[in-house]
Amino acid sequence: MPFGECTITLQDVAYQLGLPVDGDYVSGCLTDFHLYIEGGRPAWQWFHELLGVLPPENQVQKFAVNYTWFQETFAECPDGADEETVRRFARAYIMMLLGTQLFADKSGNRIHIRWLPYVARLEEMGRYSWASAALAWLYRCS
Predict the structure, then answer these.
(1) Which residues of 107-118 are buried (b: 16+ CB within 10 A; e: fewer)?
(2) Quick one: pLDDT at residue 101?
(3) 35 band by pLDDT with thresholds 50, 70 and 90
(4) Could you count the other beta carbons within 10 Å of the beta carbon of residue 24?
(5) 131: number of CA atoms within 13 Å, CB side?
(6) Most buried of the four, 31, 70, 90, 141, by CB within 10 Å?
(7) Could you tell me which of 88, 57, 60 has the C-alpha nearest to residue 74?
(8) Whole-structure pTM over 0.70, yes or no?
């Protein structure tokens, strides 16, 4: 490797971001998206069930929602919220983190709904190898 260059490794990602290395693979591939939707429901119906609200049509581009809508809708969980409301806000927050920090698209202002299968089961999010997915995304984007 020439002087002045460096390569980010899986260990670097795991250490600096605190993400798990071991676990199930993370796939954001949409060719199998329909397989992950429980009961064969349309994606936007599942979105509504998991987050409790649908974005207006002018905030949606194919399978992505404008970040500003997410931010305005889920900016702060209401005081005294019941458990389901807290879970909805947690799902939205995690989708915002995934879509803008770890797996940002080139626009930088859209959240893809490919993350629905992961946030649907909040208890299982720790079983995935998020570090390897983040590193693969970084390599893909560079």
Answers:
(1) eeebbbbbbbbb
(2) 87
(3) low
(4) 10
(5) 16
(6) 70
(7) 88
(8) yes
